[in-house]
Amino acid sequence: MAEPDATTTFPLGRAPRPTTGPELGERVLATIAAETGGRSGGRVSATVDGADIPSLEIDLTGLVVSDARRSSQRTAVHGRERGTVGRLRVEAHPLTVESIPVDLRADAEKVPFSWVEGTDGSLAAELVEPSPEAPLVGTGRVAAPRTAVVAAVERRAAELVAGQGLKLTKLEVDLTSQGPRAVAVAVRAQLRKGILSATATGGARATIDDNLVLTLSDITATSGNPFVAALLAAAKGRLAALEGRRIDLGTQVPAGVHIVDVQLEVGDQLVLTARAG
């Protein structure tokens, strides 16, 4: 028999399916912890009516995600029954990802899914692809402190330059809003190798068009130090490959979910909002 698509299923332990809200809540929290490597925090409020879930509220406040991962286990399907989540809300104020406190809120209505029982006795909820006649309608908002995001970038940059035998002693990242769907990034890095130090600068621009395609442009990386300039020249091919790169944001969500608007705000908080319909 057909196998469930691992990219659109949410494991829920063992069959039979839960018949009460508290039981469903316990299973959802257990899966979130297992799939994200999370620890602490989180609560779920739910109601169950036969195969339907009239309301499902998932509060991930306090959750610390240490090693996000996706279950790869697949099994043949023994049985499948359709259901609908009447009102879904996922929020966190905040949860922590890579040491970044992330404020999250997402709301959706009439979310179709299927209860899927595997031949091995497993149970999962499988997303049913929305259709033009029954689209998924919802909104989402993700926000994080600018300083925390920059600090995370600095940690990652330090790891990258260490691989080149360099030490990152200082990193300045300047983010500038250029409209509701565009942001410019300017970077200035202080590098050290032994007793020698050098400065490298770089920049890029990211824009989202009306078709919700993200494009990277104006990518630069330069240094007045010959040694660092040589390292950057060696990476010129990789940088050139990024110039003009287009990322269709619509393909980054589950099949059938149609994102109709995306907005990006740059201030003390970096805020991304989206609407599906």
Beta-strand content: over 45%
Global mean pLDDT:
85
Measured as a percent range, the helix fraction is 10-25%
Report, as a whole number of angstroms, the end-to-end distance: 33 Å
**What is the overall shape?**
elongated
Low-confidence stretches: 1-7
What structural class results from the helix and strand content?
alpha+beta
Q: What is the succession of H and E elements?
A: EHEEEEEEEHEEEEHHEEE
- Report the radius of gyration as a whole number of Å: 22 Å
Detailed description of the structure:
This protein has helices spanning 21-36, 146-162, 226-234, 236-242; strands at 9-14, 43-49, 52-59, 64-65, 77-97, 100-118, 122-127, 137-145, 167-177, 182-193, 196-208, 213-223, 246-248, 259-266, 269-276. 16% of the residues are buried. Strands 1, 2, 3, 4, 5, 6, 7, 8, 14 and 15 form a 10-stranded mixed sheet that branches. The protein has a 5-stranded antiparallel sheet with strand order 9-10-11-12-13. It has 277 residues and is an alpha+beta fold. The chain contains 4 helices and 15 strands. Residues 1-23 are annotated as: Disordered. It comes from Cellulomonas edaphi. Residues 1-10 have a biased composition (Polar residues). This is DUF2993 domain-containing protein.
Per-chain topology:
Blueprint: E1 9-14, H1 21-36, E2 43-49, E3 52-59, E4 64-65, E5 77-97, E6 100-118, E7 122-127, E8 137-145, H2 146-162, E9 167-177, E10 182-193, E11 196-208, E12 213-223, H3 226-234, H4 236-242, E13 246-248, E14 259-266, E15 269-276
Parallel strand pairs: 3-5, 4-5
Antiparallel strand pairs: 1-7, 2-3, 5-6, 6-7, 6-8, 8-15, 9-10, 10-11, 11-12, 12-13, 14-15
Protein name: DUF2993 domain-containing protein
Region (Disordered): 1-23
Biased composition (Polar residues): 1-10
